[in-house]
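One such given next:

>
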Amino acid sequence: MKISIVGTGYVGLVSGTCFSDVGINVTCVDIDNTKIENLKKGIIPIYEPGLETMVRNNVEKGRLFFTTSLKESLEQTDVVFIAVGTPPDEDGSADLKYVLEVARQIGKNMTSYLVVVTKSTVPIGTAQKVKAAINDELEKRGVEIDFDVASNPEFLKEGNAIEDFLRPDRIVVGTESERAEKTMSRLYKPFLLNGHPIIFMDIPSAEMTKYAANSMLATKISFMNDMANLCEIVGADITSVRKGIGSDARIGNKFIYAGAGYGGSCFPKDVKAIIKTADDNGYKLRILQSVEDVNQDQKHILVKKIKEQFGSNLEKMTFALWGLSFKPKTDDMREAPALVVIDELIKLGAKVKAYDPVAMEEAERILGDKIEYGEDPYDVLIDADALIVITEWPEFRIPNFKVIEKLLKNNVIFDGRNIYDPAEMIENGFSYYSIGRNAMHP
């Protein structure tokens, strides 16, 4: 079986590599020639644990190919996935220009039956627009070639994407023909051997499933952040509350950790997009609008606590920041809470020195010389007035508090992910601010 994947970003590259790893012949297509040449050498443009090794192995075994020519990739191809970006427009809607341009190029270059699959996260109704774009190009060519469209949303967690793809909770596929369903069943057969279900449905339902899943997870996060803020007011501890509700099987213990807000390439964009879809159809998604509002406010919570400790004039002050990516095991800084914290601190006159295990290069690309960059976690503490922990990387979990105390000007820690024990902080002589737990002072 031969497939093509258009787009070598996070979704396209992970998907193509994992398909090739089970023996499928995969060609990944991108218009960026430099990226394609690097991929041929095994140099990947993103950080994802295990992906670089897997790319190199499958290239060497002749199952994974990279090209800038969509036309060549479509030769004898059974399935072509569209996995290009769908960035948010100014109004919050998903911008489909890249998706539809790929559809047009498919229509211009296809020579035999294809299943054209949207892998990108796209609004409900996109498959029909893809179908129309392909048909328009076929009509211009004056040819009749059968094809089907399908929707196959991805459910990959950054930092755990390979495991998610190879051992999925479920595979969701929207189709409108028996032929397309059989083709997709054949394609995913290697991933079903361990009992993982493939769920077939109509295309609009498949498109909606992706948005509904991410919106539900975002809702859980914002709910817990809202509860955390109330806990501080009434004197409760959100960590205890989390344990109390997480033991209820109906609620579960995933995505109920309070923090400094969610970020990344999916949750913020998808929540905005589904709200806009509802608005366009005359319906208000009131819960999700609140989820969005709570999350935006939560990204400012750490600076609010900093001002409580030091006041609003932070000139001549320096803050050490641990963590830049929106979550551990990725270098992705899209919509990262760290960006909001850094921007506010700079506006208040402060300097920021930051360290992240893998996101330093990405941070320099985004922030340039607005902040200083440390070589290790302790390097940024030198002469800093306080430490801010904003990404829960494992190496931050059990630091040497004696070294921290020695390097910091003030024994003050702002913990945006609740990774430290308040009692231990007091024992070590720190003023400690976290999320949903009362501030602790020695």
In short: The longest helix spans residues 203-234. The chain has three domains: 2-201, 211-297, 299-433.
